[in-house]
Design goal:
The chain is of the alpha+beta class and about 350 residues long. It has 2 domains: about 110 residues; about 240 residues, BirA Bifunctional Protein, domain 2. The protein is built from 13 helices and 12 strands. The strands form 3 sheets. It has a 7-stranded mixed beta sheet with strand order 1-5-6-12-11-8-7, with helices on both faces. Strand 3 and strand 4 form a beta hairpin. Helix 2 runs parallel beside helix 5. It is rod-shaped, with a radius of gyration of 44 Å. It binds zinc ion. Zinc ion binds next to loops. The site of zinc ion (ZN) has 8 residues, from loops.
């Protein structure tokens, strides 16, 4: 055909180019057959079609042909390039399909284990408060919440702490500009509840309290309390000891004991500090050969204060101390949680490092 169309052209040159191209095409196909990933395909493309590739070399050789032959030679090379590129394109999409199919094979493997689900956990302080409230609710106590901003009357006066009473100094209270204060204990809620409800009464009131304490391993300007109050005819300290012993057994374990140490609070008479068996050493004061660090070797852990409600407090709430009596207690939730979770620095509870909280959960 070419010889017919271009009778003057030296057939040998074009014919040689055609031979070169078909040899090249065969080598290309042989190489393409062994390509099995994208990198190999790119390398093949460079070898044949790249700037220094074989096709480019052939294209350069056109310049050495007689001018009349150059268009035909260029066209022949362009057609060869188009064929090579079409083959590369087909090979490329076949590779992509093969990779997708491999991924799908994995994606529909229903026996493949799922990654573990990350779930949150209840905060140790919250857990401790909830467990304590749950214990009392099962025994008929109501849970009552109060405001964190209180008046001096509910915080001090009604609790038998008049303005000139030295005990008022011991509370290190935050006073607000409007004459109110941030409650330094949750006891105002007990007064408010008694003034609204005649006896008998059985409540626990959990919540936050605030004092002007510097932050260290055992203190913070904000802390949590849970207080309990039971007022009815014939209530005595034995009921309180039984109730707190049950609570400690629920929170710490079945072998807990509770002991009272005489103390003073303006709103109770008599008053006592409450200790329970140290869960760290079971009350022995020793861990291995060393002294128990949790209790300082005493075998006991102090968890709060308690006592029989002072008659003046009952009268302030229009309760008749001749007819009813009652006990009250206040426990430090951080203190209980520290012992329960074997944590020696309460700042852990406020820093809220997710890794630490997950460990405590
Ligand atoms: Zn101990």
């Amino acid at each position: 055909m070419r010889a017919f169309e271009f009778p003057d052209v030296e057939e040998d040159e074009i014919g040689r180019l055609g031979d070169d191209l078909s040899a090249l095409g065969e080598r290309f196909e042989a190489a393409l057959a062994s390509v099995d990933d994208g990198d190999a395909l790119d390398a093949l493309r460079l070898t044949f079609l790249g700037r220094n590739g074989e096709i480019t070399a052939l294209r350069r050789s056109i310049g050495t042909l007689p001018a009349a032959e150059r268009p035909e030679a260029g066209k022949t090379i362009n057609e060869a390039v188009a064929r090579l590129e079409a083959q590369l394109e087909r090979a490329s999409s076949a590779l992509t399909n093969r990779e997708l199919a491999a991924q799908l094979d994995v994606a529909i493997d229903v026996t493949f284990p799922a990654p573990p689900a990350r779930t949150g956990s209840i905060h140790p302080l919250r857990r401790t408060l909830e467990d304590a409230c749950d214990y009392f609710q099962r025994r008929g106590f109501a849970v009552v919440l109060g405001d964190e901003i209180e008046t001096e009357y509910y915080n001090f006066d009604a609790l038998n702490i008049p303005a000139d009473h030295p005990a008022r100094e011991g509370f290190d209270t935050f006073y607000l500009a409007n004459g109110k204060l941030l409650r330094p204990h949750t006891s105002p809620t007990q007064i408010r509840t008694m003034q609204q409800h005649p006896p008998p009464i059985a409540i626990v009131n959990p919540g936050k309290a605030y004092r002007r304490d510097a932050v260290d391993a055992r203190h913070s300007y904000m802390f949590s309390q849970i207080e309990g109050l039971l007022v009815a005819p014939g209530i005595h300290l034995g009921h309180l000891k039984g109730m707190l012993t049950g609570l400690c057994r629920e929170l710490f374990g079945p072998n807990q004991a509770v002991r009272f140490r005489p103390s003073f609070f303006p709103f109770t008479e008599p008053s006592a500090e409450v200790d329970t068996t140290c869960p760290g050493c079971g009350g022995s004061g020793k861990r291995g050969d060393a002294g128990c660090k949790t209790c300082g070797g005493s075998g006991w852990i102090e968890i709060g204060g308690s006592g029989m409600v002072h008659p003046d407090v009952l009268r302030e709430c229009n309760y008749d101390p001749e007819r009813v009596s009652g006990w009250a207690f206040g426990l430090g939730v951080e203190r209980i949680a520290m012992v329960r979770y074997d944590v020696d620095d309460l700042r852990v509870f406020f820093e809220n490092d997710p890794a630490v909280l997950a460990q405590l959960a």
